[in-house]
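Quality-control log, excerpt.
Job 1 of 2 completed; input and output follow.
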Amino acid sequence: MRMRKKKHGAERIAACAEYLISDVTHLSTLGSNQTAIFPAVRPIHMEIGCGKGNFAVGMAVAHPEWNFIAMERVSDVACCALEKAKAAASDRPGDNLRFLIGDAQFLSDWVEPHSVSRIYLNFSDPWPKKGYAKRRLTHRNFLALYKNILVDGGELYLKTDNEGLFDFSMEEFEAMGLTVLFSSRDFHKTPEAEGNIMTEYEANFSSQGMPIYCARVKF
């Protein structure tokens, strides 16, 4: 479902400018010069497709030992996430959360190679039509991009409600030679779910009794 365009969206995003990476050139030295974006150097975790920001904000609060970059392609959606992050700023004394409005296909152009420790894909668009497979964020073309920006041994976490996307993703992980550290077709019933931060979609699906599919892989 397409989000209704935000009234005064540009002004609202500008009001949260301190949490927005507006100059992507700062990402080109992410491994060697984090202080262009964050006040302290910490391992970088990145969520691709952050939606309205529940996961990113929750993880940044729960893990002050990490720096988080939350990426969202749709500016009106990013607006909601930015405002949520600003409202919860006092819960993040380490100031460890930033947002990036952009498309994942350009990640390797923007982000310094081998600078990100972990990538999260939460409830990404499944693009269910067969002809759209290359648009899925777990397609091998995207996995190659992630490999470029992840540190050696970096990890990718996937959560989805879509069994088809999960099966496709597991096949792509195998094709790319990735090591599967964990996988489940009912994540919330596993010990791995302890401390899990839910996205907006995840909370909704779980309240309806729908299973959550999850995988964690190492590059």
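Job 2 of 2 completed; input and output follow.
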Amino acid sequence: MKKAPKSHELSTWLHWLEQLHHKDIDLGLERIKQVAHFLNLQAFTCPVITIGGTNGKGSCVATLESIYLQAGYKVGAYTSPHILHFNERIRVNGQEVSNADIVNAFQIIERARGDVYLSFFEFATLAGLLIFQQMELDIILLEVGLGGRFDAVNMIDADVAVIASIDIDHTDWLGDSREKIGFEKAGIFRQGKYAICGDFNPPQVVLDHAAKIGANLFCHGRDFYFNVDNLLSIWDWHGPHVQLHALPLPHLAMQNVSSALMAYCCLAEKLPVSHQALTRAIESVRVSGRFQKIEDNPLVILDVAHNPAAAFMLSQRLKQELKPTQKLIAVFSALNDKEVSAIVEHLSEQVTEWYIAPLPSSRSWAIDDLKEELLRGGASNIKKFDDITTAYKSALLHSGADNCIIVFGSFYTVAEVLKYTHNNKFRIVNRP
């Protein structure tokens, strides 16, 4: 096995970690628990909220982070995957931690693990927990990477566990039905602790598991719900013994913000937040790559929708936001474990042109196979390119000022466009 780098460069360590373990994904808690026990990382003195779900995890984390920061609390947030920089995964008080802090954590973990193999994600998770342990935090937010029951963050017993949504994704790992996937996600629930299900129609197995272990379960639509007043652009939230009125409409999906509010309410006695702070938090929260608008002329929207359920939500949002006559162009690509035809199906009637390319990943679709998947999903007017950046530049060049370009399909797809945007000071001005 290749020895750990002596370098203090984060990029060197990340490259080494990518080569360390023979599997990209290796679910199970035995190995990481062994190292965490040695580092005394399995319990925290402050409350912990763990957030899982097929879609909406990042939005729930961001909303809770915003709520607690607006109230003046010290917050640690661990999320994945990152889009541009690894540091995005570990935040303290809303700020990405430094390269030096991450490298220091990696060095400590490497000394502690001995001959225990750890995956990239397990190393990252332990680094986040180690950094949080060194801070005097009021609340810790942990996002599940994959599934829940065997995910690395599940070695921590959360005070509140949230399932944002349950849909079909990662079937090779989690099962091919909502019942099987729901059971895996419900594995983050704990006996005697708060459990929240944000899915509007949860599989029965989620309810049964919560009852079996004695978790205190709150379900969307049954125990908490929201009402929207589109005329006044406000909404009300109703939970057990709590009502929040005249909240501003969020930039994120209402379903996820609502679930985050339920999580906040579970800990409100310990960590109270004023209505004013809640309002500021909801009004200001954004998440990179979640219906993110980066250009106005033409309108360019980035969204990491990478499964059929997320594509459906994206389709609905586009129908709400765009004019009926507005031409929609898609820059799209996905990893080869995704149901591309089912994803594309939700947007095939809205998108007039598709600009596709392979992704910078060993798990990328081959371009001709990707095109075949799009055709199966009902797409037409498909143009192939060597890479996402070239596809995006061509989409810009051939878009009118009143067109909309939607970049979606994978975190990699969005990342490539964000890199291009950040690296270019001058916008491409185009006219039909």
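Post-run check on job 2. Residues 292-423 form a domain with the Protein-Tyrosine Phosphatase; Chain A fold (CATH 3.90.190.20).
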